[in-house]
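(Deposited chain)
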Amino acid sequence: MKKNLWLYCLKRLASLPIILLGISLLTFFFMRVVPVEPAEVILRLSGVTPTTESIRSLEKEMGLNLPLFEQYWLWLKGVLSLQFGTSFVSKLPVAEELLNKFPATAMLAISSFVLALTISVPLGIISALYPFSLINKFIRILSIITVSLPTFWLGFMLIYIFSVQLNLFPTNGTGSLIHLILPACTLAIPIIGLFTQTIQATMTQELRKPYIDYAYQRGLSKKTVIMKHVLKHTLAPLLSLFGLTLGNLMAGAIVVEQVFSWPGVGRYLIESIINRDYPVIQSYVLIVAVLYVCINLCTDILQRILDPHLKESSND
């Protein structure tokens, strides 16, 4: 089994360069489809009235007059050396800007993800174990409501209740743990509803399988069956959902960061789109795509380790 797992990992790793090359091609050429001249944008942001001569001169200086594939090759060489270009607005390296803003996004993403898991896993398990109880109905209604809440509305409501009315938390910014609570809760609440529903549905299906009755006939206690068998088989298929959710959060919770003025990469992207800062947008799309590919690879490998059915299918 270990040999098959290693072979699977090597196959997935071997396919990564091709996937990443495709991502880089799409990222570069889609940005070139936008009907706005980067040179014109730079001149306007610099307070210079763009003329045909000034635009052509700047395009030559930036290499934008070269054939597209030559531009792509120069850009790709820069990306491989972690040089993502220079921001049109701040005139600073894009890699430096993203690196400075990523820790704030990572802190918010991990905090909200851990909070969502901490609450949703027990709720999902309780809901599955007691399907006809009042607490199950309460959990199901609560999860449906939380999933349906628009994030921006939820953020404003939390600000109004806990910041404006109760004066318990700051309305925006960062700097301390207390600044993190409201944005993390805003992100976590809809995820809690989604995770709870999915865990409950998956665990309910698992509890109906024949091996559960066989385990009870062997004299195993309910606690042993749940902890050692059901949970393992329940959480393994959910790893993809957990991974994609974490990827979404790490990519920047754009709405939440904007509502709470959180200085992360999501808010930075919004500002870059408004200013048409194409090097930032292009670098952001590429980095997020790479992040998703890596997280997906890790979750697939973890599923192979935890789920024996996947191992058997790979052997076939």
